[in-house]
Amino acid sequence: MGRWLRLVSKTTLGQHSFRRSRMDWGANRKRSVSGRLLPAASSSHASLVQACSTHNSSSYLIPTTSATVRCTGDIADGLMEALMSFGASSVSIEDGAPTDNAVQENFEGPVAWSNERRKLWNQCELIALFPPGHDVEECLALAFNSVGLKEKLTYRLSEVQHQNWEQQVKDLFQPLKISESLWIIPQWSSPPDSSATNIILDPGLAFGTGDHPTTQLCLRWLNNVMKGGEEILDYGTGSGILAIAALKAVGVDIDPMAISSATHNASLNGYGPDSLRLLNAPSSGNESIPVIDAKYDIVVANLLLNPLLLLSECLLSYTKPGGQLGLSGILKSQVDQVREAYGLHLDNMSVGIQDGWACLSGTKSFP
């Protein structure tokens, strides 16, 4: 029985895609997260990460046939499921007519990154990959019929070049220099500077690898505000990269697979529960986290605009008076909305900008 993986990729102000894949390539593979965001990842990037994390053979070749189907947004999810059921190895859904405004909207609002947002797309393109020897046209016919289509949709087939996914991932993820004293290192690489702080990550777990501007902004901010000995909360920990950089921290995420990812990456860096406490949080912004009753010297939250707005009271409550709060995952154009939500409770606010993304930070006011 194949396991189901759901990858959601967020490009830097680029086209959005949603990919779902079914893997049948061994019982010891790692799983991706359901519904997590992959910062700065394209569809091919997400696919490469997925392949590296699910298969260990250097000879593995990607599926050889691609079918691109154009459909309306209201049937896209159902058709995606049908294609998977009838033999597709993976299916991505892309906006068939993206505009700059549509891209911007997906970073904002209460339904951002939801199925309801996809239904707003008038036209979608489904790109399905099939393994060698599969009867693609039969699969398409069965899928069309299963979702009740009276007329067959138009589609195009193409051959996909054989590629070594694992090697491509290794070529893609190279040691990343964040600052003079901080590097992000994929687990198969040797640190270029052994005297620096080197964070070892498994990119195959697909929860963030340090290459997105918001992650780098947060890392530099942490490097500036940490003096030593602080208690730190990383809310939305993902791969654990920020919590690991803090050395002694609490990492929180709404997805249990993110917690597994962060736990694994922490172990790669030699940190156990005494140094890095990882907790699964409720998914609602109106709920607090029952197991956290402390206040922290430093709180960092690299999320998106809407979660930051919903969680303002929560994140402020976890920050000690006089403590530091860093907020990222937002565009430069969204800074004023975050400033308005937090400004009454933060002093000395400042904004870091990189490639159109922002990190707003400040000191928690005393009562």
Describe this structure in words.
- The chain has 367 residues and is an alpha/beta fold.
- It folds into two domains: 3-167, 2-Layer Sandwich (Alpha-Beta Plaits); 173-364, Rossmann fold (3-Layer(aba) Sandwich), CATH 3.40.50.
- 29% of the residues lie in helices and 30% in strands.
- It contains twelve helices and 17 strands.
- It has a seven-stranded mixed β-sheet, sandwiched between helices. A seven-stranded mixed β-sheet has the order 13-12-11-14-15-17-16, with helices on both faces. The chain has a three-stranded mixed β-sheet with strand order 8-9-10.
- β1 (3-10) and β2 (17-23) form a beta hairpin.
- The termini are far apart.
- The model is unreliable at 1-60 and 98-120 (pLDDT under 50).
- The helix content is 25-40%
Structural category: alpha/beta
Mean pLDDT: 72
State the strand order across the main sheet: 3-1-2-5-6-4-7
What is the CATH architecture descriptor of the largest domain?
3-Layer(aba) Sandwich
H/E series: EEEHEHEHHEHEHEEEHEHEHEEHHEHEE
Total strand segments: 17
User: What's the tally of helices?
Assistant: 12
* CATH topology term of the largest domain: Rossmann fold
Largest sheet: 7 strands, mixed
The Cα radius of gyration reads: 21 Å
Apparent shape = globular
Task: Estimate the strand proportion.
Answer: 25-35%
Low-confidence stretches: 1-60, 98-120
Q: CATH H level of the largest domain: which superfamily? A: Vaccinia Virus protein VP39
Cα end-to-end separation:
57 Å
